[in-house]
Amino acid sequence: MPRQPRTNPVGVPQHVIQRGNNRQACFISQQDYIAYAGWLKNYSVMFKVQIHAWVFMSNHVHILCTPQKTNAISQMMQSLGRQYVRYFNYTHQRTGTLWEGRFKSCLVQTEDYLLQVYRYIELNPVRANIVKHPAEYPWSSYQINALGKVSELCYPHPIYLAICNNPQERLERYTALCEQKIDEKILKDIRQSTNKCKAFGNDVFKSQLENITGHSMKSKSVGRPLKNKA
Question: Where do the domains of the chain lie, and which CATH numbers do they carry?
Fold first, then answer.
């Protein structure tokens, strides 16, 4: 079957995942993380994509971002991926592919859902048992969004800014939000929506996107349909 075209509405946030091929490491040294972050910043500016949250794990990355022009995220990720592979292969004396095909992504509803994805991304190292607290992991946006670290890469989304008008209190409220456990159903919905390139939000949001894009935004149930009982 032909691949479904990506839906990339301007102004709608997206949760992006890029995985290493066969789960292989795509970051080996500290310099690898630094190089990737630098090119992410450059290409996000070049293609007009606002970066709100991220985490760089050893074999995959999560990015929450909003495109400001059509096809901006695809252009950013393609350019970033090619640039980083050239660097990675040269630096680590290897050849061949690094990434697992196309990146995965889902469109995210802002109200009630966007901050759930913020937390999902920044708490990834805790769920993976790499650190006990997200502040201990240096390769995520948690230190920016929760602790106020200055960053040229991070562009705060209006929903994040609306947590509180006072900057210090906003940091404290966001920190408290991240200390709350994410509901298992929300974790499942985020993963399923992203892996299937659908939408994360309520049914009204999904229907609106379907009308705009002409593509299904709702994840279908896996397995055979149930038979009607007599």
Answer: 14-199 (3.30.70.1290)
